[in-house]
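Severity: low
Component: inverse-folding endpoint
Summary: output formatting inconsistent between runs
Steps to reproduce: submit the following structure tokens with default settings.
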């Protein structure tokens, strides 16, 4: 049992690291998207209005599909996560973070713990077992005992998080942004446009 507890803590730390890395990649990715979209739109604006309209419709549908996939995966994660023990863990977290219990602390620490209280409340509402455990670890609240099956779920969450990072790195946006020269970016964008919208462009040629 002691070994399982140690493995549980180790996996939760791995998950926190993976999610922190994903957050960093998403931050950089957001900056890349702004620059890529500007360059992309500048290129697409050279097409006739009718062609650009078809391309815009295509992109709207593609974005809808991506968002739907993300939503479905999020729901799957929450449905597969263990349900037991989350309320008990929330109560232990609340003992350390509820605003009524922070009045003796410095203002900065009050704000930090009040924010954790909000995060824990959200995790409770969404039944996010993983996030509740992350908050507990940050506060030094003992984690509940877990089963071998639950450890496997944490490993799966780590794997999916790392896969999300790889998906970001595989995007045209990320690759374009990390090219060294403007010439490489122009050439890359031209290939990207032809690959993405070749069928539409052929219809209008």
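Observed output (run 2 of 3):
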């Amino acid at each position: 049992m002691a070994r399982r507890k140690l493995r549980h803590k180790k996996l939760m730390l791995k998950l926190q690291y993976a999610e922190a890395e994903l957050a960093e990649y998403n931050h950089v990715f957001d900056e890349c998207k702004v620059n890529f979209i500007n360059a992309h739109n500048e290129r697409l604006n050279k097409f006739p209005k009718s062609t650009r309209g078809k391309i815009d419709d295509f992109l709207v549908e593609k974005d809808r599909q991506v968002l739907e996939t993300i939503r479905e995966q999020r729901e799957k994660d929450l449905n597969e996560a263990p349900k037991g023990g989350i309320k008990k863990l929330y109560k232990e977290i609340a003992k350390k973070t509820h605003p009524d219990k922070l009045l003796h602390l410095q203002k900065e620490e009050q704000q930090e713990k009040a924010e954790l209280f909000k995060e824990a409340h959200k995790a409770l509402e969404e039944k996010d077992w993983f996030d509740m455990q992350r908050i507990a670890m940050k506060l030094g609240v003992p984690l509940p005992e877990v089963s071998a099956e639950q450890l496997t779920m944490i490993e799966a969450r780590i794997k999916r998080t790392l896969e999300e990072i790889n998906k970001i790195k595989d995007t045209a946006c990320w690759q374009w942004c990390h090219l060294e020269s403007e010439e490489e970016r122009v050439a890359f964008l031209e290939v990207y446009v032809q690959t993405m919208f070749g069928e539409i462009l052929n219809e209008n040629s």
